[in-house]
Automatic annotation (TrEMBL):
Pfam families: Peptidase_M48 (PF01435). This is M48 family metalloprotease. One of its GO terms (biological process) is proteolysis involved in protein catabolic process. Keywords: Hydrolase, Metal-binding, Metalloprotease, Protease, Signal, Zinc. One of its GO terms (molecular function) is metalloendopeptidase activity. InterPro entries: LysM, Mito/Outer_Membr_Metalloprot, Peptidase_M48. The keyword Transcription does not apply. It comes from Qipengyuania gaetbuli.
Length: 488
């Protein structure tokens, strides 16, 4: 969680990303002056939404591969026509916007296993731009209104898709969802096809699109398993680009039709170049460790309730479970906690007034705190909205915004009471994870390699997914594989 941004700024970013002309040109049309201007204006906001652009050799490598594949689209005649950014985000995501701007997160790059897969993902995103799919999204957004689209995406099973659920969703929506509204299945297949064409003309193995889709499907299933859920719905490439598992065979068919299945993958080069890349949460943005969120820079920590899972976003930490949903974030603070709590409720009152019956003062682990709960109608049901705020300094406060079915606001009481300051020593002990590329030894097996993974659970499954291995695949001596370690 980094500095909180306003809904207005996010909406402006979305509008820029969706803007286009009324007609939909074919995929051979070059970048127009209008598209270049739109992209240039949106680019700084997108970098901020996703933790900023990374620099150094890894970022330069991704830029080179991205420019090489993007130029195959015909959108620009020179590699310099494209700006390719490696984003400092722990979310599996990639996207591109009009104007030649292409993005992938370090987390998604770490999931890949060769250079052809990297080119395939970036080529898929360029394919969306070449086919002007964003302009079709804009037309749909205009029909429903920008805020209506935001609310529809953010609505949860608990809250439905109207009323307060939409209002809270609009305030909490993460950048990846704002910028990658779901495409139709037909658009996804078209982008797959275009990406495979680009792989072929660039000399890569065209089967890479299918293998990376398979890895994404496996990662999605692993996320669901780790969260104890049947279906993981995270702000990630695998969910904003629907159903990767069902597209694997179609992608393989496309690849065989192109005749480019004998192209290069550059596996060893890729693994060498991404060795040491940051994996998972960046401590500067806070980290999720099991049920605990700890932010060494802000010097705070809290614990989610049993059975809930957390997602660390750019502007907020989301805590979700079957019996409620909450978000932890910050806002402008003038030194008055009661006013702060009131301002959070006021920001929700777009369609109906949401006012707590009272705002109570208390202390939590030595921190001044204030809270209030309001019961509101949401469609055909009643829900409780709770704001629980903490003062960390005269000019700095943070808060939880929680939603539960009526009468169940106590669901998050233990979490509210768990908020605490952390010591300098505890902050210093937050060590990031990274990718370590190692060579399999003569006595190594999947089990021995997996035992080196810096996790206390699901080590073998994590290792297999990270390396694109099926449940029956083995490793061989001399093979390079990825493991996740603490620090480097």
């Amino acid at each position: 969680m980094s500095a909180m941004k306003t809904l207005a700024a996010s909406t402006a970013t979305l509008a820029l990303a969706l803007t286009g002309c009324a007609t939909i040109p074919d995929s051979s049309a070059p970048i127009s002056q209008g598209e270049a201007q739109q992209g240039a204006e949106a680019h700084p906001q997108l970098l901020a939404e996703f933790g900023g652009a990374m620099t150094g050799p890894q970022a330069q490598y991704v830029e080179t591969v991205g420019q090489n594949i993007a130029v195959q689209s015909g959108l620009g005649n020179a590699r310099s026509a494209f700006t390719v950014s490696l984003l400092n985000s722990p979310v599996n995501n990639a996207f591109a916007i009009p104007g030649g701007y292409v993005y992938t997160t370090r987390q998604l790059v770490a999931l890949m296993n060769n250079e052809a897969e990297l080119a395939g993902v970036l080529g898929h995103e360029v394919g969306h731009v070449a086919a002007r799919h964003s302009q079709r999204r804009q037309q749909a957004a205009q029909r429903n209104s920008i805020l209506g689209v935001l609310g529809a995406i953010a609505s949860s099973v608990l809250l439905g898709n109207s009323g307060v659920g939409q209002q809270l969703g609009q305030l909490s929506l993460q950048g990846s969802q704002l910028l990658t509204l779901k495409f139709s299945r037909e658009q996804e297949l078209e982008a797959d096809r275009l990406g495979i064409q680009y792989l072929n003309t660039a000399g890569y193995d065209t089967r890479a699109m299918a293998t990376v889709l398979s890895s994404l499907a496996a990662q999605n299933a692993l996320d669901a398993q780790l969260m104890g859920r049947d279906n993981a719905r995270l702000p990630e490439w695998a969910s904003t680009h629907p159903d990767p598992a069902s597209r694997v065979q179609t992608a393989l068919s496309f690849a065989q039709q192109t005749g480019g299945t004998g192209g290069v993958t550059n596996r060893d080069t890729f693994l060498t170049r991404i060795d040491g890349i940051l994996y998972g949460d960046d401590p500067q943005q806070g980290v999720v460790e099991g049920r605990q969120f700890i932010h060494p820079d802000l010097r705070l920590a809290f614990t989610a309730p049993q059975g809930f899972y957390m997602v660390n976003g750019t502007r907020a930490v989301t805590i979700s479970g079957q019996s409620g949903k909450a978000q932890f974030s910050m806002g402008p603070y003038n030194g008055n906690l009661q006013s702060y709590v009131s301002s959070v409720f006021a920001a929700l009152s777009q369609q109906q007034q949401i006012t707590p019956s009272s705002i109570q003062r208390t202390t939590v682990n030595g921190l001044p705190a204030a809270y209030g709960t309001a019961r509101v109608a949401n469609g055909g049901q009643q829900v409780d909205v709770t704001v629980f705020a903490y003062e960390f300094a005269n000019d700095r406060a943070y808060h939880f915004l929680a939603l539960t079915p009526a009468g169940q606001s106590g669901t998050f009481n233990a979490m509210f009471q768990s908020m605490r300051r952390i010591s300098t020593t505890e902050a210093a002990n937050v060590i990031p994870r990274s990718i370590d590329v190692v060579t399999v030894g003569s006595r190594d097996t999947v089990a021995t390699m997996a035992a080196k993974m810096a996790y206390s659970d699901a080590q073998e499954t994590r290792f297999r997914v990270l390396n694109g291995l099926s449940s029956s695949d083995t490793v061989r001596a001399g093979q390079k594989v990825k493991i996740v370690v603490r620090g480097r």
